[in-house]
Amino acid sequence: MNRRLLIILLCAFIIAAGCSYLVFRVVGNRLIAGHQKTTRVVAAASDIKLGSVIRAVDLTTIEIANPLPKGVILNTKDAIGRGVISDLYLGEPILDNRLAAPGSGGGLAATIPQGMRACAVKVDDVVGVAGFVTPGMRVDVLISGKSPAMATSNEGPITRTLLQSIQVLSAGTDIQKDAEGKPKQVQVVNLLVNPQQAELLSLAGSETHIQLVLRNPLDTAIATPPGTGMAQLFGAVKAPAKLQPAVLTHKTVPRPAARIYLVEVFNGAKRSEEKFVSDEGK
Known about the structure:
Helix content is 18%, strand content 31%. The chain is built from three helices and ten strands; from the N terminus they run H-E-E-E-E-E-E-H-E-E-H-E-E. It is elongated.
């Protein structure tokens, strides 16, 4: 056989072997990735709202690839009967930190962290930032009223910022009756506060008018506004005082009195006196 032909065949064999190896590696990696180890975890079978107690019909299982999210629940028994402290959505794996502690039940109480309180504040639709106050938002609490120190003065009410950057737990309506016994809807907003802040809100709700001011959740700066009174809203702007023209006065200096000199003149045995007046400047 021709030596040149053998060299060509050998080169073709080497190239074919290299291409086959590359194809094997690529296909093998894809097959391994397609058969990656998965684990069956507990997930939501439907949308579950905050405060709900999880039932068996609310749960399903799905398979997810490793590594697993931290705190994912693997057994449905670990989730049934626990309250939801954050909204869950269809097909979402259920994590332990999205549920209340076992035995704490559901409802709003299950969403309150230890050491904190949920304080209900009654507001109307306008005061409630026109319905934009929703769970998870942060608000400032403004109060308007007249302090006891101003009871005898004519300064009028004053508005000041009582609390800042307070988290909203829930917002809804509460049906109450008016003076005529007719039902009416009142906007109720539950705020997450500490015990001291709860006392301030309770007193402010009974003695002053409360308004909620919506703020950016990323804005955590605490401002120090001085408060605004009626005098600052309707008080007249004081005009700058006019400068009085300077009046030049000429002060008259009294001239000193003239001095009188007495001169005695002796002419022999005769004696006489002469008076002379002299100016001060001479």
